[in-house]
Amino acid sequence: MDKSTFEDRKAIINGPMHGSLRHDSAHKHVTGTADYIDDIPEPADLLHGAVGLSDRAHAEILSIDLSAVAAHPGVVWVFTGKDVPGINDVSSNGSHDEPLLAETLVQFHGQPIFAVIAETRDAARRAAQLAKIDYRDLPHWSDIDGALANGSPLVITPMTLHRGEPETEMTNAAMRLKGQMRIGGQEHFYLEGHIAVAIPGEDDEVTVWSSTQHPSEIQHIVGHVLDIPSNAVTVNVRRMGGGFGGKETQGNQFAALAAIAAKKLGRAIKFRPDRDEDMSATGKRHDFLVDYELGFDAEGRIHAVDATYAARCGFSSDLSGPVTDRALFHADSSYFYPHVHLTSKPLKTHTVSNTAFRGFGGPQGMLGAERFIEEIAYAVGKDPLDVRKLNFYGQPGSGRTLTPYHQEVEDNIIARIVEELEETAEYRARRNAIIAFNRDSRYIRKGIALTPVKFGISFTMTAFNQAGALVHIYQDGSIHLNHGGTEMGQGLYTKVAQVLADSFQVDIDRVKITATTTAKVPNTSATAASSGSDLNGMAAYDAARQIKERLVAFAAEKWDVGAADVVFLPNRVRVGEIEIPFPDFIKQAYLARVQLSAAGFYKTPKIHWDRKAGRGTPFYYFAYGASCTEVSIDTLTGEYLIDRTDILHDVGRSLNPAIDMGQVEGAFVQGLGWLTTEELWWDDKGRLRTHAPSTYKIPLASDRPKIFNVRLAEWSENTEATIGRSKAVGEPPLMLAISVLEALSMAVASVANYKVCPRLDAPATPERVLMAVERMKRV
Known about the structure:
Blueprint: H1 3-10, H2 26-31, E1 47-53, E2 59-65, H3 67-71, E3 75-80, E4 105-106, E5 112-118, H4 121-127, E6 132-137, H5 144-149, E7 160-163, H6 166-172, E8 175-183, E9 196-200, E10 206-210, H7 215-226, E11 233-237, H8 252-265, E12 269-271, H9 275-281, E13 288-296, E14 302-314, H10 320-329, E15 339-348, H11 362-380, H12 384-391, H13 414-424, H14 427-440, E16 444-457, E17 466-473, E18 479-483, H15 492-504, E19 511-513, E20 516-517, H16 532-559, E21 566-569, E22 572-575, E23 578-581, H17 582-591, E24 597-603, E25 608-610, E26 615-617, E27 621-634, E28 640-649, H18 657-675, E29 707-712, H19 738-749, H20 766-777
Parallel strand pairs: 1-12, 10-11, 14-15, 18-19, 28-29
Antiparallel strand pairs: 1-5, 2-4, 2-6, 3-5, 7-15, 8-13, 9-10, 9-12, 11-20, 13-14, 16-27, 17-18, 17-24, 21-22, 22-23, 25-26, 27-28
């Protein structure tokens, strides 16, 4: 090897920030060697648990006979809510409205009433079917219409956003319209379902392996049900086979049940519900009913918006408060509303409590806003894209930057994103060609739409915007990394490892990624709100900064140079005129008794929120994007194909473009499923009938757009001081799929020569598309 080649190799590191590095477990995923909880070698004497579920939607429990359950071969213990040592509650928000096991009242079909512990999983599941429970049925309603008709209570105090004079300006507007939109829910359908293993320890100690996005919450919940302090509970998470928000709170009950049985019996316990049980007993994305009134002028410029967002929340509050709040935060999408009044209506229903799902209410709010634009476009006879651009937020100083919650939009790049995509996707020419095609086609109709994304990044609960990380450097120069974020396939571990590799200028192979555990980093926030990289990346960076400051001080003193003369270079450190390999440098620092460990911490600056007043700055910054989708529908059957999608998405200065591209593509397809094929359905007895792959249809590989062009906005850089000037990528791209629904709507509208808005609700299943086509034929 010649000298120049050697110098080139010395000049770079493998896996710096902003590099397209593969996911750290990618090779394990495709070969099946990645260990999930069910792959961990089972401890000796492991027992298995199963839950007994109610078969009524709303009823008093008159009596429970579990004798046949207990007598079933292999059963070791059967327990109910009365056997919970501490508090029989697993609510995530302290509302105490979600019992671990129902005792006197069941409030949804599939609610856990008792648990069975047996020698085998099969024995536990079979025994759980043998209970004899007498009920007294009570009135129930399982949807928003039923809740409204029965005067259902709200699961949490609603929120209102108000700015300007919407009542007056609505009256004064040149044009007005009213409408209603139904937006369906969504099942998480992760590859790995819920699972927990609990192992009892000495005294009051218990260790739990849980498939959860929120280890600290599992720690708290287990402590509460066992009546022990958090320091006695250790929760471990190496990876999840998908989370999407469904493992933020929904893993609580399985971890709690396993821990109770483990401490009672002194043996390891595993709970792994069947897919049907998992889907029946755990929450989903909230479905919404949006009622709206719009005031606008003949050009399509919005003057006033008044809208109410009713949501099916289920029997308890869970995360419905912040979910419906975020729906209102995104009810503006990318548009400035001069005068606005928005109200949430989180309704109680006799269904499983709905919960977090990628976007956390934002997609529902944003979808409603795009319906507003579509309604206005048809009313004034313009291309919806022109109406969108007319109503975009403006630049600072334009007087068009204030959100309904009184936060200024200071980083607005939506116009540039949309204009660039409009040009590269050839939107105008293709739209004209599609209109011409529809004019001459008898049965097949096409549609095209270009829709924007503006998504606020941060937890709206200010306290959650904090993170910790623990970094050790060992004598041989290898680095140990632990932080509070959890890995669910999104590449968080890889990105944070890149931050450390970049900070110390070492190859990423030198950084050991370790499982998330409450024993190392305490009081962690959920890996949610798209904030995993922002928070944990900065916490790791802070830990590295502390260690580097000590190392620089050590080197400056030992070699008698200035601090500026100590420079970290690829896999080595320059001290004055000499260069020392990184492992040798660390060994010398150890011998000099330099502390080579640090706990990093980060809290998001600038944010604050007053929910009661409906004012504040809940978001640190916004992520932007746009998508253009073309579809074809068969007007005889309602079936459709997605012919092409073009996406341009803003991730700031990407920490890892390869991973971020995967997140954008995956989020789009998941959003596509939400808006087209995925339909939740409860029967008149309150039973969820779409509880398995046979009845619930997620997108297949064949459902992706035939032409799928995805690009990151490489020119973008976060104006805020995030890690590497990057932006969050977890949730925002899901809303790119709104272009699919809007394109389907245009295709349907062509049947009536684009005279009226089709008001196509979501999900736009082939049946729903066909019914909309039939409506258009009668216009």
